[in-house]
Amino acid sequence: MQVKPLKIAAMTLALMTPALSAQAERYAFITHAVDGDEWWQTMRNAADLAAQQMGVEVQHFNPTNGSLDEMAAILNAVADGGFAGVVTTLPDAQKLSESVVGIQENGSDVIVVNSGTVAQADALGAVMYVGQPDYDAAFAAGQRARADGVDSFLCVNDRPEVPAARERCLGFADGLGLDLAGRELRLSDASDAASIAQRLADDGEAEAVFTLGATAAQSALQALANMPADRTIYHATFDLDEVVVQAIQDGRTAFAIDQQQFLQGYMPIVVFANLHRYGVLPANDIDSGPGFVTRETLGLIASHAGTLR
C-alpha cells in the first residue's frame, strides 16, 4: 500500500473547502517519504490507529519523489488549511524552516518527527520532537559492527540530498574508528542494486555494507547474493520491513537499527489530542530509538513487520 502522492493545487482547494474549515482535532501529517517506500506506511498506519483511538482526523501528505522543494510547497499549503496541529519530518532544517514557522504563525502547533534534531525542533518553536538522533544511532551501530570484527565498510547513501543521511554514514564510520572518505556510495535510486554490486566488485577490501533504509537494504541484499562464494560481506541497516526481518532470521543481515517509526506516527497524534483537549504535554521530547533488532530479539516484531513495525 502506497502513500498517496500529493497534488498541490488539488490539496489547496481541498483545504479551503468549508466542510473542512473546522480546526478542532484535525491534524496534518507530512513526511519526505518517496511514493512506494513501504517503510513509511508503518508510520502512517500508526498515526491512523492513534486517530481512530483518539477520535480525531488525520490527513497525510508527502512529496511524490521525495523532493524537498515539493515538501516546502506542501507545508506552505497546509499552513492555510486550518489544522489544529501539523506533524512533519525535518530532513533539511535550512530549506524547510521558513515553511514550518509559517504554519505556527497561522495558528497551528507543530511536532517534528523522524528527521532533524531536538535542537532544530526547539529553535523552530515546535511543541516537541519524536525520533532518534541519527548520528548517535549510527555511531552505536558502528561500535557494534567493530565488536563483530568489521575493519572496513561501504555506506550506501540513497538520500544524499538529505543532511541527516550523511550523519548516518558519518556516525557509522566514527563508531568503527574509520574515515568516511572514499567509503560512501551515493545513489539517486535506492533500488539500484547494480551500482552497489559494481562498487563492491571495484572495492575488494570492503568487509561490510551499511544501508540507511529498508529499500536500500533490499538492494544491498540482492547485490550481496551475487558475490563470489569465497567473499562474505557483513550487512547492517537502518530500519525494518518484511525483507529485512527475513534477512535477519536467515543470518544475511547482522542487525537492523529500529527507530520504531510506529511511535513516530502514533505518539504525535496522541500528544496533540491531549494537548488540545486538556492542555497537558509531556515534559520531555520522545526518543523513539535506537533499538537494535537481531535474530535473538525478533520475537513479536516479525509478526508485525511491514504493518505496525
TrEMBL record:
Residues 1-24 form the signal peptide. It is found in: Periplasm. One of its GO terms (molecular function) is carbohydrate binding. GO terms for cellular component: outer membrane-bounded periplasmic space. Residues 28-275 form the Periplasmic binding protein domain. Keywords: Signal. Gene3D superfamilies: 3.40.50.2300. PANTHER family: ABC TRANSPORTER PERIPLASMIC-BINDING PROTEIN YPHF, D-XYLOSE-BINDING PERIPLASMIC PROTEIN. Belongs to the bacterial solute-binding protein 2 family. This is Periplasmic binding protein domain-containing protein.
